[in-house]
Specification:
The chain has eleven helices and ten strands. The protein is of the alpha+beta class and 381 residues long. Helix 4 packs parallel to helix 7.
Length: 381
């Protein structure tokens, strides 16, 4: 299926970025299954991402990046291409961005000069630490504390289900301070910071649990305004949430491509499967959902470039639309492929597992729909 004709007219610059991302995806494809089975940093994937230069799109130009202001559409287009090959590759690229965004926007200049060029070159792995053992979507309930003390800022608490936990070189940490919310950068080698591997997931992922036992970092490691950094964290989610929609579109397109190739070559009842009405209609519905999700993802990403927080609703709509569609598309793809869709180690099996977490992380479907519903109630008041 030709995915080069989306329902949104990409300009020449974004088309070039898409071709570069597709080239990287093709390079990683031979070892994508190995990478996606890894719960630690897969070095060949990291090296390929570094060599491609695509991580420069996750960092501002002043620090070795590609654009003066991060371009959510470019990030979304890249993630669409990468996820079609490897979830590990997609996550590694995406978290370089969201993991360093609060530093890029709210960090001191010296701190940005030290870390961000390394993030752009994939010489340093970034992470953002938000969720806790008892706190998932309700981030206002975090219990980790950030407190000014002699010698800097003291961080106490635990963070859970942290992407790149244990593999990252630094963590941008959300915590409470004087009744508000603050953020601070904690290097991975800071005394008092302990990490351990997170739970095994149905779709393996670099996941870690963090414990901050009276970790002291310099005041200069603060991100944003003391007690008022919740909006900084929301801005990071606003920029990168829509890119998850791009990932979902890439996964759904890959599932459709797998099913379509099978239906064209597999014969039953004396004809290719695709000539059976129920099969061809199922594939047509998949195509419809992929293109619809792609158009919404691109539109929301282009809006997020101008004012991410003002267009957060559209990012939520795009994420819900694309991730829910991906789940339906990959399920139909498995059904079209019959017993061949159930083979452990096949690409379609990997896509099936990788589709499920998309509806949970960076805003679960139910949480996003509840937020959208509240906006509708306010609009009608």
């Amino acid at each position: 299926m030709d995915s080069s004709v989306p329902g949104f007219d990409l300009g020449p610059g974004h088309k070039l970025i898409r071709e570069q991302a597709r080239a990287l995806a093709a390079e990683v494809e031979p070892f994508a299954a190995e990478a996606d089975a890894s719960s630690g940093l897969h070095e060949p994937t990291r090296a390929a991402l570094a060599a491609s230069g695509l991580a420069r799109h996750a960092v501002p130009a002043a620090y070795g990046g590609n654009s003066e202001i991060l371009d959510p559409l470019a990030i979304t287009v890249i993630r669409e291409a990468l996820m079609s090959s490897s979830a590990h590759l997609d996550s590694l690229f995406g978290v370089q961005g969201i993991g360093s965004y609060t530093l890029a926007v709210g960090g001191r200049e010296a701190l940005k000069q030290y870390w961000l060029p390394k993030v752009a070159a994939v010489e340093a792995i970034a992470s953002i630490a938000l969720t806790e053992p008892d706190v998932g979507s309700d981030l206002r309930a975090v219990q980790t504390s950030i407190e000014p003390v002699e010698g800097g800022l003291r961080v106490r608490g635990r963070k859970s289900f942290i992407t790149n936990g244990g593999a990252a070189d630094f963590y941008c940490v959300l915590g409470r301070e004087d009744g508000g919310y603050s953020m601070v950068l904690v290097p991975a080698d800071a005394p008092g910071l302990r990490t351990r591997p997170g739970d095994d997931l149905i779709a393996p992922h670099i996941l870690g649990e963090l414990e901050f036992d009276d970790v002291i970092v310099p005041e200069e490691y603060r991100l944003g305004v003391p007690g008022k950094a919740f909006s900084l964290m929301l801005q990071a989610l606003a920029v990168f949430r829509v890119s998850v929609a791009g990932s979902a579109v890439g996964l759904a397109q890959a599932a459709l491509d797998e099913a379509l190739a099978h239906a064209r070559t597999r014969e039953q009842f004396g004809a290719p499967l695709i000539e059976l009405g129920s099969v061809s209609q199922s594939l047509a519905l998949c195509w419809t959902e992929v293109e619809t999700a792609r158009a919404m993802a691109y539109r929301a990403a282009s809006l997020a470039r101008t004012d991410p927080l003002a267009h957060l609703d559209y990012s939520a709509i795009a994420k819900v639309s694309a991730t829910e569609a991906a789940g339906r598309v990959v399920d139909r793809a498995v059904q079209v492929m019959g017993r061949f869709g159930l083979v452990r180690g096949s690409k379609i099996e990997r896509l099936y597992r990788n589709a499920r977490p998309l509806r949970v992380y960076e805003g679960a479907t139910e949480v996003l729909l509840d937020s959208l519903a509240r906006r509708l109630r306010k609009a009608g008041a």
